[in-house]
Amino acid sequence: MEISWHTKTFSLLFFFIFSRLAPSKACHPVDKEALLDFKHRITDDPSKLLLSWTASSDCCASWEGVACDASGRVVDVSRPGLVSDNDFVEDTYMSGTLSPSLGNLSSLQLLDLSNLKDLKGPIPQELGKLSKLTHLFLNTNKLTGSIPITLRYFSQLKKIYLSDNFLSGDVPPSVMKSWTSVSELGLSGNALSGSIPPPIGKLVMITKLDLHGNNFTGSIPTSIGNLKNLKYLDLSENQIAGSIPQSIGGLAALELLYLNQITSQEDTIYDIWTWVYDILSFIRKQIPSSFVNLLNLQTLDLSRNRLSGQLPPQLEYQTGSGIKSFRLMLAKTGIEGELPHWLSSSSISQLDLSSNALTGKLPWWIGNMTRLSFLNLSNNGFHSSIPVEFKNLSLLMDLDIHSNKFSGRLNVIFSKEVQDR
């Protein structure tokens, strides 16, 4: 999952306002030379993102996407390929490589070359010299090679997105250990391998961690339980094995949790939810501060894990009516049996139980799940007609029930009531 436009727009707006404090000095020659070298390594710029970058003009005064401080040092370089305006979204691209000279921008705080689609080659080790950098966005390009160990010198880094490239190799533990000020880290959609470094537990300020879609192996480090500010965690679509650590139960602020496709022969769905149930039970008894609840959780995705057993009643505490909306994704997990009655009073808005071994009738009380907008029960063993109460699902927009043994007419599905707007 990528950085939201609201978050990114706020960051860029800050630097835009900052840049309007007109610099009293012309662009520093070292910075100008570095940026011209970057332009020189761009082989195709069909959208003319760098058209204004000329040797005869002042990079602080007239170069688009460049902002300077009062001393004439460049603090912001923003030439993203996806630009959002009030009325439209402009999608552009740029071909070429990243210049090592970018490391000479000693006052740079924000570097945004995201979504340019065709930036290739490695991330220059020289970027590690940018000791004042707080925001680095290089996502959605074709960058290759490994994550440079020199990035450990980013002592002031707040947000870094290297997602959707072709980066490979291990994540250097020394790099992870040094990013103690990072609040958002996106490395998804690459070919990164090795284990998730245990020093990930040092990222105590982080709120969003997205490592999905890589080749990480090994187990989830127990140190991940140290990330008390974490709201979004996605470790899905890797080759992670073993049990889910109980320390995840200490992530008090967690709202979205994606752990699908974790290889394990041992865990049952009851095992995974034991610590959730224990935590919720202890909460009612005022547990010690070392045990924290997951009551802020809004999304749970354990799809494509090797689980077994029935849907546990403990989930009722997680999906209860006190939560406005909850997304529960348990596709291809091996769960079995009938749908439990507690689902009828849940706040689930999106439910995916597809490709499991669920059986029995589709219960009448499914009509009580009036918050449902997405329901996927396909590839199971349900055998019954569609209950007439189905018409009560007025918010339902996406339904998939194929590959079951349903019988009867479909008019119940198409005659569902429309909620007044």
TrEMBL record:
Places the protein is found: Cell membrane; Secreted, Cell wall
InterPro entries attached to this UniProt entry: Leu-rich_rpt (IPR001611), Leu-rich_rpt_typical-subtyp (IPR003591), LRR_dom_sf (IPR032675), LRR_N_plant-typ (IPR013210), StomDev_PlantInt_Reg (IPR052941)
Family, similarity comment: Belongs to the polygalacturonase-inhibiting protein family.
Name recorded for this polypeptide: Leucine-rich repeat-containing N-terminal plant-type domain-containing protein
UniProt keyword terms in alphabetical order: Cell membrane, Cell wall, Leucine-rich repeat, Membrane, Repeat, Secreted, Signal, Transmembrane, Transmembrane helix
PANTHER family linked to this entry: OS01G0149700 PROTEIN, OS01G0162200 PROTEIN
GO CC annotations on file: plasma membrane
Taxonomic superkingdom: Eukaryota
Domain Leucine-rich repeat-containing N-terminal plant-type: 30-69
Bilayer-spanning residue ranges: none
SUPFAM superfamilies: RNI-like
Signal peptide: 1-26
Main location: membrane
